[in-house]
Task: inverse folding
């Protein structure tokens, strides 16, 4: 999610289609407050903290591409301005005729992330819908409810779904006949 606001800024400012009069290397950078506000508007972004924009992506990138020697997100702490590492968006491909062509993948990255988010939202909504059906069905045929729970505990299930189902099982096993414990501060 960290890349979306930066790449959107890159595209909106005309660097993707070269309509901006200045090169990206001379761009003053996107303001942190604008990027952070946009990040919070994105799906699953309402609870994000500013450290995601500041370091998480760069740390993950370094972990998987240690020899690259650069970070995808460049920032100036003093001015609170941000840039995307443009050369990571420009892919050079040599064609069979020996000519090199450079392709900007900024829009493709946005499309891929949007598609991923849509699939995650669909999967989660399907899980919620199924849980509602199982809750009603469980009253009539507990075997179906048990089969559903077992399916959700398989290794190929999304980790968040696994956590929700695991919590529900533990709550059902240990929480229903025990009083709620409250910790006073």
Result:
């Amino acid at each position: 999610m960290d890349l979306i606001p930066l790449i959107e800024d890159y595209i909106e400012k005309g660097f993707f289609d070269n309509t901006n009069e200045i090169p990206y290397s001379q761009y003053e950078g996107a303001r942190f407050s604008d990027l952070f506000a946009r990040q919070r508007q994105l799906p699953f972004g309402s609870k994000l903290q500013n450290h995601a924009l500041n370091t998480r992506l760069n740390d993950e990138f370094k972990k998987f591409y240690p020899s690259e020697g650069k970070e995808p997100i460049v920032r100036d702490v003093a001015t609170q301005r941000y840039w995307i590492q443009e050369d990571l968006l420009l892919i050079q491909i040599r064609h069979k005729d020996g000519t090199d062509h450079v392709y900007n993948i900024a829009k493709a990255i946005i499309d891929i992330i949007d598609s991923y988010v849509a699939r995650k939202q669909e999967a989660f909504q399907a899980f919620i819908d199924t849980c509602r059906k199982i809750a009603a069905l469980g009253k009539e045929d507990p075997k179906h409810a048990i089969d559903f729970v077992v399916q959700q505990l398989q290794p190929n299930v999304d980790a968040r779904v696994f956590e929700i189902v695991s919590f529900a099982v533990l709550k059902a096993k240990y929480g229903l006949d025990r009083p709620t414990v409250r910790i006073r501060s």
